[in-house]
Design a protein that fits this description.
Length: 479
């Protein structure tokens, strides 16, 4: 049996360099399949790992472990696909698009979309659910109003991740204080230092950009009128169609399990589809699996419905999410190889040697969280791993644990949707129909938070020191 060796830093970081080059050129320039590119990089990493004594059995065990820990989060994707299909058939999402087109101004769309998704995501605690429901309606409104789709997607995602970061119902908001060693509401209160300026910046940029001719096209009025007429001709709207949305909001606010709430909302939407749209039991089941199609509505003359409306609402279904799931599974192969070979440990331990001040500690924590997030493609592992890695370093510099939890949330939770092969990035791109690279500059909230975290680290603003009791405990432990 080959003895496992500790790799030098240059070897450990090589897969990440290869990943950046392959993804940057293969996907960024040529738009090759992300899944195939991930497999190629993964097997490069596997070969490198085996050269340093890691066995295939160890790699497969690491991959299985990571998939197992994230399985329920991945399974939620399937239920989001079901929600989109049934809510389209029932008319729930089309009705939100219809009234959004009537009520929202094109020049204020970006600001409105950010605020609306912020409210929904805080209530639900989930960015995926927010984007898959109200976010999907808003992107439809953006299409009708002639708003730049990349800017619209960025504002929607920014609002969705506000709640994912700040809501006490969010999984990562609960996970970060546990990983860092602080309490939930101490963590949430401390995040206001980075969240408030990031939010203000979003509102200012979205307001200014919304009034720019490059963001809103001159033909928006014609497109909006055409879409309004097309939607009203396709569906029978009724206030009761909002019941599925209310179920999701109330269920999430009460802390009910996500998957049962999503299933209930889909089931109710299917009943509403039969009552108000004349759908059959068979068409509701088909919509849940394969997505909504215009021919599911009886007595509808599809030829009179504008093609823009048809392409907007014919979507969803469990099967539509499978590409996203495949990206996530391919990413886990890469993550498992990196983990089993010990490459991540080498990289993170090397980064710790550059800590010389509070500012550099927070900067290195951000960078480390980035690296782990880019490698594994989800927020849970970087938050847990970097929380454990840097917990003592923060104590040694007399920094309260809530500084660490805030940094983990700023750099872990919010950056994931900016990574094309991550669960968040793949889901957002597939659901909104806008490529990750395109919406990335407009997802302002997702990267300004960690920038303020770094800035406050070097200036000392918003940095909490250990209290006297905590400091004495630390001294006693050292003694």
């Amino acid at each position: 049996m080959k003895t496992k060796k500790t790799s030098p830093f240059i070897v450990a970081v090589l897969p990440i360099i290869v990943m950046a080059v392959v993804m940057g050129v293969g996907f960024g320039k040529y738009r090759f399949s992300v899944e195939v590119l991930l497999i190629l990089v993964s097997f490069f990493t596997i070969i490198l790992a085996m050269l340093y004594g890691t066995t295939w059995s160890e790699i497969s065990d690491a991959v299985s472990e990571k998939i197992g820990k994230s399985f329920m989060a991945i399974f939620i994707f399937v239920f989001v696909g079901m929600i989109i299909g049934t809510w389209m058939l029932s008319g729930t999402i089309p009705m939100m698009i219809y009234y959004g087109l009537k009520l929202l101004s094109p020049s204020l769309f970006l600001v409105s979309a950010f605020i609306i998704t912020t409210i929904v995501s805080v209530c639900t605690g989930t960015s995926f659910g927010s984007v898959g429901t109200v976010g999907l309606a808003l992107i439809g409104v953006a299409s009708g109003l002639g708003v730049n789709m990349a800017a619209a997607a960025g504002s929607i995602i920014s609002g969705a991740y506000f709640g994912d970061k700040m809501s006490p119902l969010s999984d990562t908001t609960n996970l970060a204080p546990v990983a860092a060693g602080t309490t939930l509401f101490e963590h949430i209160r401390h995040m206001f230092y980075t969240t408030v300026p990031a939010t203000i910046l979003c509102l200012v940029v979205y307001f200014i950009a919304g009034r720019s001719a490059s963001i809103v096209s001159t033909g928006e009025a014609i497109a909006a009128a055409e879409m309004i007429n097309g939607l009203s001709a396709t569906f029978n709207f009724n206030i009761l169609l909002l019941i599925p949305l209310i179920i999701v909001l109330v269920g999430s606010a009460m802390g009910k399990p996500t998957i049962p709430v999503m299933f209930t909302a889909s089931f109710v939407a299917a009943i509403l589809a039969m009552v108000f749209q004349g759908a059959t039991i068979g068409s509701t089941i088909t919509a849940a699996f394969g997505g909504f199609k215009m021919n599911m509505l009886p007595n509808l003359n599809v030829e009179v419905i504008p093609s823009a409306v048809q392409s907007l609402i014919q979507r969803g279904g469990m099967s539509s999410i499978m590409t996203t799931v495949l990206k996530v599974l391919c990413a886990f192969l890469f993550a498992g190889a990196m983990s089993a070979a010990g490459f991540m440990d080498v990289i993170l331990n090397k980064l710790k040697t550059f800590v010389h001040s509070d500012g550099t500690l927070i900067l290195i924590t951000v960078i480390a969280t980035f690296i782990v997030g880019i490698v594994v493609g989800n927020a849970y592992i970087p938050i847990l791993l970097c929380g454990e890695l840097f917990k003592d370093a923060f104590k040694e510099r007399n920094l309260d644990a809530k500084n660490l939890s805030r940094t983990l949330e700023d750099a872990g939770t919010c950056v994931i949707p900016l990574v094309p092969w991550s669960a968040g990035g793949a889901y957002m791109a597939a659901t909104l129909g806008v490529a990750t690279w395109d919406y990335l500059p407009w997802a302002i909230f997702c990267y300004t938070g960690f920038l303020f975290a770094i800035l406050w680290g070097f200036t000392g603003f918003g940095i909490a020191k250990l209290k006297d009791v905590q400091l004495q405990d630390k001294i006693n432990i050292k003694a």
